[in-house]
Amino acid sequence: MLGIKLSEIETFLAVAEAGSINGAARRMHLTQPAVTRQIQRLEAELGLILLDRRSKPPTLTAAGRDAMEHCRRVLSAVEDLKAMGMAEGATAGRLRLGFAHGVVDLAVTRPIDELRAAFPLVALQIGSGWTGELIDQVRDGRLDAAVVLIDPNEHPPQDIEGVRVGSEPVWIVGSACDETSSGPIAPEELARASWVLNPEGCGYHMVVQRLLDRMGARLEVAAEVLGPDIQLSLIARGVGFGLVPARRVMQSAQAGDLRRIEVRGLDLSLAVWVLRSSLAGRLTPAIDHLAGSLAALWAPAAAPAVAVAAV
Question: Whole-prediction pTM value?
Fold first, then answer.
């Protein structure tokens, strides 16, 4: 029987996720030599080389990538086992949630309060990121669930379970001082605009890119800025057009200096989905509860919840 310790598995996953031994040492509150020894012991027990030490920092070998998935399943099973002892039949454990940048401000308010009240034995670990990153993290088990923004005409990857909980209206906005037209503009006029957007990887950035691609036009980015508040300040001062959630525009201190750019034949929105990892196990009721709270939050704008099962 292998004498593998959970601490060795946790340290190996920390190295894999942090991308370096130094990063894992900071995360685990260990010294770098201590992390190295734990990885070496795990490699000795498995009879495998998990890290390619010829690269700086070391990278996962093919065996290391396979081991990473098995290690995540082991830790997930251990969490389920621990939860059994907390309260018979209760949902308990650590729930790792990720939220797309565009919805995190709204999603972590009432829905999180309701989740904590309904599942007091569930400890929350919350982060945010771009939709593409979050999908990858749900797929490989780094997150138990994620709330993401997806083009309304598309679906999440078929190997991930999910439910659509709402629709987030987004507006193209410009400076109120640059009113070149009193009514809706033609789509072609967007091709002549400069843009203030989140960095690449953001769903909003992708929407604008695809819109201009369909016109055969090039995206001209005047400023890449993370976060709608700074974006709206720049847009109000005439730096360029932006694509921002309608609610953020209406709530903004810059609202009086902004105008919605209506485009003929174009009504933009992004679908809000809750994605669930196949390793979520006993935490599934908590994730389902969160999905229900989010659907109520986006109502009546929310589309009817449509579940999509993994195949």
Answer: 0.67
